[in-house]
């Protein structure tokens, strides 16, 4: 398996302001600063937070 094929959109979204709509109904607005196979690292309100990809329903680019 090609590791670059795991996430074809991640590179395009790095360091961009995004709104993550979560499966719980909550929304989180922040800058995506990193990602892995199952997690996304975002920064908002001066905090770094790891979101599990399985918890994300939708991503909007600002």
Describe this structure in words.
The protein is mainly β and 62 residues long. Helices cover 6% and strands 53% of the residues. The protein has 1 helix and 5 strands. A 5-stranded antiparallel β-sheet has the order 4-3-2-1-5, with no helix packed on it. Strand 3 (39-44) and strand 4 (47-52) form a beta hairpin. The chain starts with 9 loop residues before the first helix and ends with a strand. The model has no long low-confidence stretch (mean pLDDT 86).
Q: C-alpha Rg, in Å?
A: 11 Å
Strand content: over 45%
Q: Spell the H/E element sequence.
A: HEEEEE
What general form does the structure show?
globular
Count of helical segments?
Answer: 1
Overall mean confidence score, pLDDT = 86
**Quantity of strands, as a count:** 5
Count of structural domains: 1
Largest sheet: 5 strands, antiparallel
Question: Termini distance?
Answer: 32 Å
| Order of the strands making up the biggest sheet | 4-3-2-1-5
User: Structural class, from secondary structure content?
Assistant: mainly beta
Low-confidence stretches: none
Helical residues, percent: under 10%
Defining key terms:
single chain; 62 residues; mainly beta; 5-stranded antiparallel β-sheet; 1 helix; 5 strands; 6% helix; globular
Architecture blueprint of SSEs:
Blueprint: H1 10-13, E1 17-22, E2 27-35, E3 39-44, E4 47-52, E5 56-61
Antiparallel strand pairs: 1-2, 1-5, 2-3, 3-4
């Amino acid at each position: 398996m090609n590791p670059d094929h795991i996430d074809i959109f991640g590179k395009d979204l790095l360091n961009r302001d995004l709104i993550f709509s979560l499966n719980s109904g909550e929304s989180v607005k922040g800058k995506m600063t990193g990602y892995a196979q199952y997690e996304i690292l975002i920064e908002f309100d001066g905090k770094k937070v790891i979101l599990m990809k399985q918890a994300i329903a939708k991503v909007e680019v600002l």
